[in-house]
Amino acid sequence: MIYSNPAPKVNPRNPKAMSSPPPLPTRRPLLLTVLIALAALLTAGCDDTTTPGGDAGTDTLSPDGDITLTWTRTTLGDGAWYAFPAAACDSTGRLHVAYLDLRDNTLQYLTELDGVQSLETADASPEAGFFAAMAIDSADRIHVVHLSPQEGTLRLSTRAAGAWTTRVVDPAVGFAGGYCDIVVDPDDVIHISYLSYSAGLRSLMVATDDGDSWNRTVVHAGASLGDIEGTTALTLDASGALHIAYGGENVLRYATNASGDWVTIPVDQGPSGADYANAASIATDGAGRIHILYDLRIVDELRHAWTGPAGWNVGTIAADGDWWNDPALRADTAGAIHAARILPTEGAVQYGVFDGTGIPLETLATRTDDGAESLTAVRLALAPDGTVHLVYIATVGETEVLLEHLRGSPTPR
C-alpha cells in the first residue's frame, strides 16, 4: 500500500515560531537554551551499562523475514553535554560516534566494541562540531564534516592511523551555514553537501576532495530568504552519481548530477502555510530507488518520498503532531532501507524497514526508560553483519543528559 495523505491539521502554535532553523548563537548559554527549547540536540553520558529499556529485548523482523533483531540498550560517553551526534559502522562492524561537547565546544569522538569504549578529541578548535556528519572509507578511516560557527568555516576531521587531522572545506560558509552531510564514493573520494550563507541568502553547495584542495560547486543559489531552508542530505547511487535532498519554503527539493550536470526539482509541495520541508535523510536502495525522509513543518507530518517507474511516490508516515521528528535513513549492504525517528510528544524512539510499499514503525524505547524529560537526535548506523545501531540523546534534567545506544543484534528465526 502507498501511504495515505490525511488532510493537514491546523497547528495551534505560532506559525512564525520555528519557521526556519534557529540562528547559531556564539555563546554557550544561549546555545544550550536554544537546543533544549527545540528538544533537539543535547546530552551527557555516564557509565557504559547494559539495561533493558522500553521494548528493548523484544524481536524485530528483518527485511528478509528470516532474521529477527534482539535489542539491548547501553549508555555511552563520559558525561559530556552532547549535541549534534553522528554515527557510522566500519567494515568490521565497529560503531563510531562523533559529537559536539558543549562543556568546551569541541568535536569529540568515541568508538565502542563489545561494550568497551575509547574516547578522543577530534578537533579542539573553537566551537567545532556543529551539524556533525560521518562517513567511513574503504580503509576504515573516519571522516567527520562539521561547522565552526565562530570561525564561519566548514571543516573535515579525519582519523587515520590513530591520529586526527582537520582541513577547512570552505572558509566562508557564514554564521548560518552548515547543515552538512558527507559520503565517500567507491574510489574513496569525499563529497560533502552543505549550505553557504551570504548577504541574507543561502546556497546549496557541494564540495569534492581532489586530494590537494576542494572543488566547490554551487548547486542551487537561493533567490530569496526562504528559498532554501532546513538541512541537506546526501547519498550516492551505484553509478557514483550524487543525490541531495533539501528544503525550501513549502517544498521538498531534490538535486542530482546523474546526467553530468546538476538538476534540481521540487518533489513535494506542501499546502499554503506549511512553512518548509526539513530534508533530514536520504538513501538509495538495492533497486536503485531514492528514498527521502523529511518533516513538513507546521502541518506536523513526517513524510516519505521515493522514486518509482512513474516518478516520485509521496506519502505520510505519521501525522501525529510532531514537527521535529529528526528522522534517519540508511541502506544496508543488501540494499534494504532502514529508518528511525524520535516521536517528541511521547518521548519515543521508533524504527522500521521499508517493505516495498511503506515503512511501518515500532517503538523500541521511551523517555521513561531513562527517567528523561525528552529524547532527541536519533542517528542510525548499520554494520555489515546486519546489526542495527541507534544512537540518541536523552535529556534527564538541567544537569543530566545521556547519550543512549540501542543495539539490534540479528538472530536467525
Intertermini distance: 26 Å
- CATH domain class name of one domain: Mainly Beta
Can you count the beta strands?
30
Globular, elongated, flat, extended or rod-shaped: what is the shape? globular
Helix share bin: under 10%
Q: Compute the CA-based radius of gyration.
A: 19 Å
Describe this structure as you would to a colleague:
There is one protein chain. This protein has 413 residues and is mainly β. The protein has a domain at 28-42 and 76-325: Neuraminidase. The chain has one helix and 30 strands. It has one helix spanning 28-38; strands spanning 50-51, 59-61, 67-76, 82-89, 95-101, 106-113, 116-123, 130-136, 142-148, 153-160, 163-170, 178-184, 190-198, 201-209, 214-221, 229-236, 242-248, 251-256, 263-269, 277-284, 290-296, 301-308, 311-318, 328-331, 337-343, 348-353, 362-366, 374-382, 388-395, 401-412. Strands 1, 2, 3, 28, 29 and 30 form a six-stranded antiparallel beta sheet that branches. The protein is globular. Mean pLDDT is 81; it is low at 1-55.
Features:
single chain, 413 residues, mainly beta, Neuraminidase, six-stranded antiparallel sheet, four-stranded antiparallel sheet, 1 helix, 30 strands, 3% helix, 53% strand, globular
